[in-house]
Amino acid sequence: MKDTLMQCTPIHLSGIYVTLEHLTQAHLSEIQSAAADGELWKLFFTSVPTPENTQQWLDIALDMYRQQTAMPFAIREKASGKIVGSTRYWKMEPHNRRLEIGHTWYSRSAQRTGVNTECKLLLLTHAFEVLNCIAVEFRTDYFNHKSQAAIERLGAKRDGLLRNHTIMPDGRIRDTVVYSILEHEWPGVKKNLQYMQSKYEN
């Protein structure tokens, strides 16, 4: 794989239910509205922006993009036309052909729908089949049991637990659960995601 394949260039990924749009400053108000749907910032184990710090959250995401360490996306639901969350490729390692999918959150109205399944299918397909990754990683808070269950449903395998891994903004020291999908596992995981997606189709 050439390193240039993993350069942070704006991309849009489109499926049946969602479009993943390259995150820009123009998404600010829609991101605020998406996070307000369920007041997601109240969950202590997430990093969803509050109305007051959405600009700071966006600035950090865009700075990561400028530094070529992340590709942030806004998630637009096709049926409603609304932004319903955000996700990103980050910790991108071109020489090691691996990256992490993280900073993911969804509006309450988009949860328990086909949105997450299709987002992961789009992101993983691009990572393994276009960026030629040999591994894609997921990390989540030890206390975020819903996220762990969702990651495991994708077909990712648990690699381990990083103790005292991250000091959170509120001072809590987070333990981080690490999962991954490897290149040779992707065909099976893809079939599983396609099957999961088909259950949401009319």
The CATH homology group name: Gcn5-related N-acetyltransferase (GNAT)
**Overall pLDDT confidence:** 91
Q: State the low-pLDDT regions, or none.
A: none
Q: What is the total tally of β strands? A: 8
The top-level CATH class is Alpha Beta
Instruction: Quote the distance from N terminus to C terminus.
Output: 39 Å
Order of strands, main sheet, comes to: 1-2-3-4-5-6-8-7
Helicity level = 25-40%
- Counting structural domains, the number is 1
SSE ordering: EEHHEEEHEHEEH
Strand content: 25-35%
Radius of gyration, taken over Cα atoms and rounded to an integer in Å = 16 Å
**CATH fold annotation:** Aminopeptidase
Looking at the overall shape, the CATH architecture is 3-Layer(aba) Sandwich
Structural class: alpha+beta
What labels would you give this structure?
globular, single chain, alpha+beta, 8-stranded mixed sheet, Aminopeptidase
